[in-house]
Specification:
The protein is of the alpha/beta class and about 220 residues long. It has one domain: Rossmann fold, CATH 3.40.50.300. Helices cover about 40% and strands about 20% of the residues. It has eight helices and eight strands, in the order E-H-E-H-E-E-E-H-E-H-H-E-H-E-H-H. Strands 4-3-2-5-1-6-7-8 form an eight-stranded mixed β-sheet, with helices on both faces. A hairpin with a 2-residue loop joins strand 3 and strand 4. It is globular. The structure holds adenosine-5'-triphosphate (ATP) and magnesium ion (MG).
């Protein structure tokens, strides 16, 4: 089983949006997908509840007493996590994943917070003691703004304290399509292609990365 973690301690950066959309994408490919909502807020859980029966099946993985109960058939586990995840809790999530996506909003504060987060993550490597492939994704970007351009510039340069580059995969625009899909328990890849072609294009680099060996620890 492969596990993909979506994590950034900053609230509202798009963790649940990315987690639910990734789950849909893999389910559409015919994979056995489980979505774990580790956040008491339950955005992904609520989304799964309203997902139409007629759509590609996504299973739920339950977090009970800090233990994740994953359906046996699961091939791909997607973990949506709460905001303000730090320290031991953060290390625990990372320890249980192969791949990690860090969504970041295009604001100077969010970029700085992401830098602190990357440093915290690096400082926990002794605790984690396992290889994980990490990448950043810019989310809710208004492409015409200077801040979005700056974000792209900084994310492209984001490095771990050991000098290793952190791959910046793609920039997802702010789009009503995400809200429309979220309200219906759907993903962007399940909406009309004519209305979502631009969003699908922006997802392509992320899907390519997820489907490549670059996102899997050797
Ligand atoms: N690309 C986008 N375009 C438009 N709206 C978006 C986009 N991404 C996320 N949103 C909206 O922004 C809000 C926050 O997104 P989301 O809930 O995914 O963030 P989160 O990181 O999971 O938040 P939390 O930290 O509270 O769990 C939601 O209303 C979501 O629908
Ligand atoms: Mg969330």
């Amino acid at each position: 089983m492969r596990s993909i973690l979506v994590l950034n301690p900053k609230g509202g950066c798009g963790k649940s949006t990315l987690a639910t959309n990734m789950a849909c994408y893999f389910a559409l490919l015919g994979r056995q997908v489980a979505l774990a909502d580790c956040d008491v807020q339950g955005s992904s859980r609520d989304w799964l509840k309203i997902r139409p029966e007629s759509r590609a099946k996504i299973m739920g993985a339950e977090l009970i007493n800090n233990e994740l109960h994953i359906p046996k058939a699961t091939e791909i586990l997607i973990m949506d996590t709460p905001a303000a995840t730090h320290g031991e809790k953060l290390a625990n999530y990372v320890r249980n994943a192969h791949t990690m996506i860090v969504p970041i909003l295009p604001s100077p504060m969010d970029i700085r917070a992401a830098e602190h987060f990357i440093h915290e993550l690096f400082s926990l490597r002794g605790l984690i003691n396992r290889k994980i492939m990490i990448a950043t994704v810019a989310n809710r970007a208004r492409e015409d703004t200077l801040v979005a351009a700056k974000l792209e510039y900084y994310l492209d340069k984001l490095k771990l304290p050991n000098g290793k580059r952190l791959p910046f995969i793609t920039m997802l625009r702010a789009s009503q399509n995400y809200l429309y899909a979220a309200e219906r328990g759907l993903g962007i890849h399940e909406l009309a292609p004519s209305k979502t072609c631009y969003d699908r294009e922006q997802w392509e680099p992320l899907l390519r990365w997820l489907n490549s060996s670059r996102s899997m620890p050797s």
